[in-house]
Write the structure tokens for this entry.
Amino acid sequence: MNDDSLSSVFNLRGCEFSAINDDNFTDREDTELKGDYFGYYKENKFYSDKGCTKALTLEADKVYKDLSTLKYYKYTNNALSLIDASEVKMNYLTRDDFLNKGKFLDNTFGVFKNPDATIFDYTNSKVQPLYYELSISNEIQELLKEYKVKGYFFVRQERIPTTLGQGFSVGIDRSSYVPMLYDGEKYFSESFVSNGSRLLTQTYEDRIVKTPYIQCSGLLSLDACVNPTLQSNYDGSEFILHPRTNKVGTLTKSKRHYALKESGTLTKESANTSLIFVGSDSPMKYINGYSYSTKCGTQEDVSQFSFFSQPDYSASANNLIRGLYCPFLGANRTLQNNTIYDIRIPNYSITRLKDYFSIRGKDNSSFYAISDRYELGNTNTIQVFRGDCYTNTVTIRLNRNFIDSDVPINELIVSPSTWKDNYKGYNKMTSGEATDSTGSYASINRADVNSVNLGH
């Protein structure tokens, strides 16, 4: 204001954007009019499209603005007559109004819904964040001056989410209950002994163990890992999971690193799914008959480990896993493999979008600035970012070994055969002294076991 105080918030014209570069002030396909009194003038008629093919049904004594010339016409006695802009009175709408009878969710309370669009330009290796291009017409700026407004800036409220976050689908092992990746044929994890020789080795490929079986699925979710509120919300309650794209996900491998590549097509199916957050260092969580874990064994005791896929009590067992696994969301069903899912609020439905818009519009939470301050008349078009978005490349380490309390920074395996020579089978091991028929965990070099470089 002229006295440097702040006025009440003036709402923008909200809508649901159908695509990138869509707008909320020109014509839209299959609608009478995007605004109540706007269109395109041609030969004593108004049209809803720039090509002037869809004539509007005009209301008597209403003023219409030609979006091509910005001139005003009044419709009286079944005819349009040009009038001066000074004769035009602003059309005031209440805060609760939906425009166009709710088509496209056009509204007066400044609520927008963005299109489902990617911001990544893989061809040119660029990120192109979404933004709003906002403009204030000259007539509105002149009206604001009458109310002793000297400048403006754009604000927003915190988002009331309908999509809580995203997650990448993984398998949950039916024996150890830890997360595992899918290579297109089987699910796999990482043992601490080699497959053939059962030696302790730092060679990652020698320690990969695979299975075609899973207990259920889980989700690797960065949002849940960093947001304590989300962690508490994922308590076994049901949420709607919806695939982000209709592409089939596959993993490409480079040493220990796996990257998601999407191709082909899949059927996008939404489903109610119970989700529970399984934090780091959790020996076990259980809901609805399903178990989940991020911890196999302990760093102090080599006798503590888990079997991968199924128990094998023999001395030649190589499906043994130890260590800590990353936090994840446990699901009570099997999901599509290698798929990024949107996690939406319980009972979410696109048929309720108008209700969601109304709830958002009537919210009284505080506003915060997302633009600089501008003087009236100084500029007409401004690019504004939402202010709560982030773009990043996420790398999640699925597992890691324990840090040995006696040798915390050791990566050298002194005796690679310490497990092979002393492990006689699960039912033939003791914590005491070894005999001819039994082995002793005390004979196994714990520091060597904890030195195996686990992680992918």
User: Anything to note?
Assistant: Residues 13 and 132 are 12 Å apart (CA to CA).
